[in-house]
Every structure is written in C-alpha cells, then in structure tokens.
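User: I'm writing a tutorial on reading structure tokens. Could you give me a worked example: one chain, its sequence, then its tokens, then a sentence or two explaining what the tokens reveal?
Assistant: Sure. Here is the example chain.
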Amino acid sequence: MSVSAGTGWQPDRFLDHYQLRTIPLGDDPDGESPVTATLIRRAEAGARIDGSRPVAGAVLYVHGFTDYFFHEPLADFFTARGYAFYAIDLRKCGRSREDHHTAHFTTDLARYDEELGLALELIAEEVGADTRMIIAGHSTGGLITALWLDRLREQDPARHGLVDGLLLNSPWLDLQGDAVLRTLPVTMLIKAVAAVQPTRVIPQELSSAYGESLHESAHGEWSYDLALKPMGGFPVTFGFLNAVRSGQRRLHRGIDVGTPALVLRSDKTHFAKTYSASTDRADVVLDVRQIARWSGCLGGRVSTVPIPDARHDVFLSVPHAREQAYREVDDWLTHTIRPATESSETSRKESTL
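And here are its predicted structure tokens:
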C-alpha cells in the first residue's frame, strides 16, 4: 500500500491551525477491521512544502499508550527551528480509534511498521526526499519506534536513510513493578492468556495520579480530550502486554536503530496511587532506572540525559524541567544532528562529482 502527497488534508477538530490526513490500513490482523492511522501536521507545513519557507528537516512524533497528539509546544519548538512537524495517531489510538476497536490494542508491535512506513513515505514526498527526518517517540512510542528503525535498517535501507535521528522521551524499555513480574513463569502466563484471550483485561488497579498531575481540570496545566486520554488510562489487555514484553525482550538482546539517539527521562520515579506534590516532579509511570539500564541496547550512538524533576512525559513537566528538556534537544540538534546531516550531504555531493 502507498499514499500520495498533496491531497486529503482536512482541518483537525482538536487543534486549531493543524490538519489531518487519514491513512487507510485495510484489514486488521487482530480482527478489528477496518483500521486506519491519522497523520497530523501543522498548517505551516504546507508553506514549507511549496518552497516559501526553508526546511531544516522534518519530525515525526509517535505517542505512547493512552495518549494521542496534542503537544503544541513541542511542535512550536521544532517549527521555530525550521522543521516541518508531523505526528501520527497510530491505529486504534486517539483520532484513529473507532467504536469497534479495543483502545490501543495490538498483539504485535511490528503491526505499526505499516503506518509508520507510509507516514515516512508521505512526509518525504511532501518535504522532499533530500530532507532529513527525526523520529520522536514517547513511552510505548519510544519502544515501537526503536524496534521499527532496527527492522527498517535491515529490511529497507533506502527508506531508513531518510532518518537522521531518534528522540526518545521516557521510552518503555522494561516492565516496571516488582521483579516477580519479569520472571519466566509470569512471562509464560501472559503469553498463554494472550494466545487464547488477547483482549482480556489484566486485573489491576489503574492510578489516576499521573493524569491528575497533567490535566487542567485537576492539578495540571494541560488541556486535552479525556475521551482520548482518560485520567486513569485505558485498560491493559493480555495481548497488548505480551506484544510489549516481546518487544522489550528483543531490545534487551541488543538492536541498532542506525542513527544517533537522544534519550530523555526523569531523574527519579515516584509510584503513587493518589496525587501529591511529589507526583509533579517524578516519573510516576515507569522506573527510570530501567530506562537508564536498557538505553545502551539501542545502538552505538546513544546519549541519555536525566532531567531533574521531570514527569513521565518530560515535555509536559513543570516549567523548569521541560525548559531543560528543550535545551537538551536544542543542543543535540546543534551538535549531533546538524553536523551529521551536513557531513552526509557533503558526502552525497562528492559522490556525484
């Protein structure tokens, strides 16, 4: 399946000055057909495409579990630096979820390769095949994009060559919680239930503390649709958790995303069932020690930076933490991505002489 640039963009009903495009995906291997993905772009991307404004590169942002794209300040940051900004709501997530879908459900993270590849193709057609791209992933999106780039590097080197960097925001690289949850017997139990009842919900109490720390209706400063990102999250199914654990085990054996990677995370974890002031200045979703431990499995050019007082989504942190996060990205773009891009462009020009 392929897509064509230049048609199909519609106003986004959630964000002003944004446009969306539906990407048909056809039959769902997990039995919830039809499925689609949704590509979102800032309206200014059109001006960049027609050549009226310079393009430094493009960004494709991939959300996490119980999430969708609403991160306008992140788009503003990249747009101010000359990047055409895009985001994708994956199948059964956010703008792409329909009534017949189990929210954020898949039995194999590699299913997302389809929409990510089509999005990459569409962006390349719009901004130009010579424009370099940065992939950004948050939480589960960080795991998904890392595994995708590893497969893309082996299976489609030409398409992988469009990507110059991977930005990971608190990627979900291991299963948090008690060590017993990561033992072989529990792993085999998850796999067994997933094989016969993939949409069965895991019996666990979901905390709303993180959602309360973010949303403006509670203790936070951010406005987003609680139908697409519920305060306490969507239920976790056995099939989805088995897919995540399979992806994490693959990563633990060592992968190579094939580009420089920047991993941002909080400096501490604070698991809590109820909101408190500590919730605002820690990762209450993942164990940051696991992120630190497994980041080295992403490849050979990985920088990991702990952000003091950051939340799980470092770009939704309290002001001083998110400001540092943006400074770290700015430094990475300036000293790692830009020199690598310029060197690559020089090499391509010399090869044509």
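What the tokens reveal: The two ends are 36 Å apart (CA to CA). The chain has one domain: 10-203+235-343.
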